[in-house]
Amino acid sequence: MRLDRRGFRNALGYFPTGVAVITAQSASRDPVGITVNSFTSVSLDPPLVLWCIERRSDRYATFTEAPGFTVSILGAAHEGVSARLATPGEHRLDGIALSSTELGAPALAEALAIFECRREALHEGGDHAILLGHVLRFWHRGSGDPLVFFRGRYRTLADCEPR
Question: 70: exposed, middle or buried (C-beta count within 10 Å: 0-12, 13-18, 19+)?
């Protein structure tokens, strides 16, 4: 039986996700970024996170060969940055407000949270690779509305504060 790929993708779209930008240093030492909604926590002890990248991505080699990466969790105001780094093509970070990190790959200056990670493992996962990162440092803003992706569109949450 052949799976309806478009239908499968549409069904997955019913799961709302946060949006993050992952950055790494390219071979030329210029930082590059990619928008993902596949970011998730794996373990608290040790602190591990993961994200996925399509093997056909023009940034695949940069991210899979880099010794580490930085994750910036996007807020509602980052929709433009997210859209820019989600499409094929140029992925330098020129013109984006950045903060330096100890690992070298910058973070987005106004991110809701930042995780600096050493690459722990790389696993094949169909047409994607799964990058597992060991969190070395993290920071969070303490407030702010997240950028959310749902049914193929950016959204925001109406109520983000805990009850």
Answer: buried
Cα three-residue angle 95-99-102, rounded to 5 degrees = 135
Peptide bond into 46 cis (omega under 30): yes
Q: Has residue 10 been placed in a domain?
A: no
Contact 149, 16 (CB under 8 A): yes
In a domain, 64, yes or no: yes
Q: CA angle 106-150-143, nearest 5°?
A: 50
- What is the number of structural domains in the chain? 1
Within its chain, how far is the Cα of 132 from the centroid? 12
* Structural domain for 91, as ranges: 18-142
Residue among 20, 91, 93 at smallest CA distance from 59: 91
Query: Helix or strand or coil: residue 138?
Result: strand
**Region at 158 (left for phi over 0; alpha for psi -120 to 50; beta for the rest):** alpha
Structure tokens at 107: 């973070």
The reply to whether the predicted model has a pTM over 0.70 is yes
pLDDT in tens, 30-62: 899 999 999 999 999 999 999 999 999 989 999
Question: Is 153 a domain residue?
Answer: no
Residue 72: give its domain's CATH number: 2.30.110.10
| 3-state SS class at 60 | helix
